[in-house]
Amino acid sequence: MTANSIKFGNYFDEILKISMPYLKKQFSSAEIQELLNSLRDFKGKSIQEYVDYFDKVYCQMVKRQYQMKTSPNYDKDLCKFIEDQDTQIKIIWGDCLHVLKRMKSESVHLIVTSPPYYNAREYAQWDNLNDYLADMRDILEECYRVLDNHRAFVFNIADVYDNDNIVTRATWGKRRIPLAAYFIKLFEDVGFTFVDDFIWDKGEVQTQRHKHESKPYPFYQYPVNCYEHILIFHKHRLDKTRYPCPICGCLKVNDNSQTEIGVQSWECKNEKCFQRSPAGRGKRFSLLSNMMQRHQTEDCEIPKQLIRKWRRDIVKFPPVIKINAKGENILGHTAPFPEDIPEMAVLFYSYPGEIVLDPFAGSFTTAIVAAKLGRIGVGIELNKHLFRESVIRRVKRMTQQMDLSGKRVKFAEYDLTFLPKVNRQKGEKHDKGGNINAIARKNA
Q1: Which stretches within 27-95 are classed as H helix?
Q2: Quick one: which of 58, 147, 60 has its CA closest to 107?
Q3: How far apart are CA 184 and CA 194, in angstroms?
Q4: Using the 8-state DSSP alphabet, how is residue 197 labeled?
Q5: What is the spatial distance between Cα 160 and Cα 113, in angstroms, rounded to a whole number?
Q6: pLDDT at residue 140 is higher than 90
Q7: Confidence band (pLDDT; 50, 70, 90) for 1?
Q8: Cβ atoms 183, 230 nearer than 8 A
Q9: 156 contacts: CB under 8 Å, gap ≥ 6
């Protein structure tokens, strides 16, 4: 029996009858009625369209349950701002920990960022390395919560040469600090799975470290620091929720262990399913495999030249040129993010229309690139007083260029800088959610 041989008008009546015991375990009577109403209103042209639509609505309702359980006091105004499809670049000013705590759980589809490197800039200073890593861990915990399940976090970090201020504050306390190694441990501690480490070869760079050519003897020679790490992590929260078969839409499925750590697999037990093995086994699938297979479409195909560029885990491209011939900073930021990294991340790990978040937005390169590539770019930046003028100028220039190409792109701002500073040693001093009196400003 094939899907095309059945009149789909009555098909879902039978599927729903088989699935009803499982629906009653998952949803309330009101939620089941909501699901049935959605199916009744849907005008599909094939059984597969009904199966896909049922799966979409079902997953949305399961996600809503999870969000209400894990983020019941989310900021409704902020989340409405982020989810608004009318603006493609969202500029949020404020402490990223404040902002993340007000977001819904599993509400963004990709995170791409480069954090402030430990004491490398005057606007990002910590008393010691332990305080820095403690703050980063708090932020990563919230990033894990707001990132959708089975999605990626692309994290650019460099090792630095500085004093960790743990043993001494004297000059002799300076050393090479392997931030990437520390961050891998932090990511794993909060629940992420380490996947890959791209080495960004920055070519010949300016440095003061390799300066002992006059002493060609042992223990005087050190390499020029000319690389950074681009770490890839996955979030795989083990979800034992029963999901419908992607072939027939039935919820009569059995637990089929895990395809990898944290990825629950299922096997369809509907005997009338359109796909069964010669041995009578039903379709085996997971939430992750469903997502990946259903997005194998032309608009999601990655350009071949980009795949070739990133085929090796050592990738060479220059850093951003920010100082012009007159010695002026043309970007208004001391550590701008190259577009190469978010371009790879967005095309490798997200789909058109999805939300891409950068919690340390800086010059908002990630949000801008995401918008260029048909996603919703969301950036959070603390230092509004330092960067707003240059950011707005850059975003306006980008949106004007997109307008000329026929693709309308809008941006909007949301201000949370008025909130009191987070005291991570003594606990939060601000409310944790609800409707707050934030300042939102949209720009055409």
Answers
A1: 29-41, 47-70, 76-83
A2: 147
A3: 7
A4: E
A5: 17
A6: yes
A7: very low
A8: no
A9: 113, 114, 200, 228, 229, 230, 231, 337, 341
Model confidence at 181: pLDDT above 80: yes
Start-end of H helices in 278-364: 287-294, 304-309, 340-349
d(CA 184, CA 157): 10
Q: How far apart are CA 351 and CA 346, in angstroms?
A: 8
Sort strands 193-201 and 376-381 into parallel, antiparallel or unpaired. unpaired
d(CA 183, CA 133): 8
pLDDT tens digit sequence for 75-124 = 999 999 999 999 999 999 999 999 999 999 999 999 999 998 887 777 77
Report pLDDT for 350.
Answer: 98
Region for 47 from its dihedrals, namely left if φ exceeds 0, alpha if ψ lies in -120 to 50, beta otherwise: alpha
pTM score? 0.89
- Where residue 262 falls (left for φ over 0; alpha for ψ -120 to 50; beta otherwise) is left
* Structure confidence at residue 337 (pLDDT): 78
Residue identified by tokens 């003897």 is 217
Return the HEC string of 357-380: EECCCCCCHHHHHHHHCCCEEEEE
CB 380 within 8 A of CB 56: no
The C-alpha atoms of residue 421 and residue 408 are separated, in whole angstroms, by 37
CB 134 within 8 A of CB 381: no
For residue 161, what pLDDT band results from cuts at 50, 70 and 90? confident
In DSSP notation, 222-281 reads -----EEEEEEEE-----------TTT----EEEEEEEETTEEEEEE--TT-S-B-TT--
* Whole-number Å distance between alpha carbons of 169 and 177: 15
Q: Is 160 exposed, middle or buried (0-12, 13-18, 19+ CB in 10 A)?
A: middle
Q: What is the pLDDT of residue 211?
A: 63
* pLDDT per position as a tens digit, 381-414: 998 988 899 899 999 998 888 776 777 889 999 9
| H or E element that contains 27 | none
Neighbours of 113 (CB within 10 A): 25
Task: Supply the pLDDT for residue 122.
Answer: 74
97 is written with which tokens?
């920990």
Q: Mean pLDDT across the chain, nearest whole number?
A: 87
Q: Please tell me the predicted confidence (pLDDT) of residue 439.
A: 47
Can you state the percent helix, strand and coil of the chain, rounding each to 5? 35, 20, 40
* Calpha distance 96→116 (Å, rounded): 12
